[in-house]
Amino acid sequence: MELTIESMFSPAGWLGNSSYILLIISMAMRNMLWLRLFAISSGITGIIYDAFILYDPVGTFWESAFTLVNIIQWIWLTIDRNSLKLNSTERALKDKFFPEIEDTELKQLFKCSEFKQLMPGFKLTRQGENVEKMYMITHGKVNISFQGKEISTCEAGDLIGEIGFLTHSPASATAVAATDCQVLMFNHNNLATLIKNSSEFAACVNNIINKSIADKLIRQNKISASATP
Question: Where a domain ends, among 68, 83, 98?
Fold first, then answer.
């Protein structure tokens, strides 16, 4: 094909142009699945253009390699996304406690936690001692005491030990299961590693912690207001 303005905007020329247009669009995609799909489309268009219009074996080879790599990456990405689908138990927890959190981030959160059944009297934190785990109550009640005096109660949806996780400081209060409890237990080190590796996951955890702290403050203010004569 001759290098002229007419050839550039001919039907064959537009085929070559569309390959680069699709490549540019792929680079603009923030979603990796769409990025790969547009890249694959660009590669296939480039293969047709190089093989049947330009008769260029070198261009055809590299467009084929580019397309193959993106197809493999798309397959792995799809498999990875499917592995992050919530099961029925996790879906029920999402609907009840995390309706605003994306499934993929929430699945990662569940993967770095484990369900625990706690008997009444189990101490989740001890005042003045280091906090190595964070808990989210999914069922039951936990009493919070300071210097031996009960000061509040936490229920389903509340976090225990989140301040210790954020500040790496000893527990400011003692948390004891008041009833049979079911909790999600998070190891601080595992949680911190995931947060370090993913900004999306970090935002997810921060939103959950901030909501828990805000809910506790609101509840405590209401208790204080009702106790004021």
Answer: 83
Higher pLDDT, 44 or 165: 44
Share above pLDDT 90 across residues of the chain, in percent, rounded to a whole number: 35
Q: 64 and 95, same structural domain? A: no
Domain that holds residue 107: 88-227
Say whether both 39 and 140 belong to one domain.
no
107 and 213 assigned to the same domain: yes
pTM over 0.85: no
Residue finishing a domain among 56, 83, 110: 83
Say if residue 111's pLDDT is above 70: yes
Structural domains counted in the chain = 2
pLDDT digits (tens, 9 = 90+) for 65-94: 999 999 999 898 787 777 667 888 888 888
Q: In Å, how far from its chain's centre is CA 17?
A: 37
